[in-house]
Amino acid sequence: MITATVTRHACPGFRPQPLASYLAGLGLIRVLGEQADPAAAAAWSPDGLIIATTVEDLPGWLAGQYVPTPVLSPWKSGTEPRLVPDG
After folding, report:
1. How many domains does the chain have?
2. Residue 36 gets which letter from DSSP?
3. Fewest Cβ atoms closer than 10 Å to its Cβ: which of 19, 49, 51, 86?
4. Would you report the helix, strand and coil content of the chain in percent, each value rounded to 5?
């Protein structure tokens, strides 16, 4: 059985307050879980966000392998705005 090494990353720039920092931390753990390590875990500490993941080099992964999630895909069928008839 092969076991992956879990690395703990301290992210002092992500804190529970202000709200923007909190949401940025949640976004990071979301994309990390979706794209690299579904078993990634995170916790808030006095030093900021602590992420436990099998990704050894988190900044390297963000720079080289992370693929941004599109917010809106205007070319995808079914997403074009439609007028609703009155009545």
Report:
1. 1
2. T
3. 86
4. 30, 20, 55
3-state secondary structure of 8: strand
For 56, list phi and psi in degrees, rounded to 5.
Answer: -75, -40
Residues 22-77 have pLDDT tens digits of 999 999 999 999 999 999 999 999 989 999 999 999 999 999 999 987 777 666 66
Whether 70 maps to a domain, the answer reads: no
* 20 located within any domain: yes
Domain range for 29: 7-64
- Size (the chain), residues: 87
Tokens for 42? 């995170």
How many CA atoms does the CB half-sphere of 8 hold within 13 Å? 9
Which pTM was predicted? 0.74
pLDDT of residue 4: 80
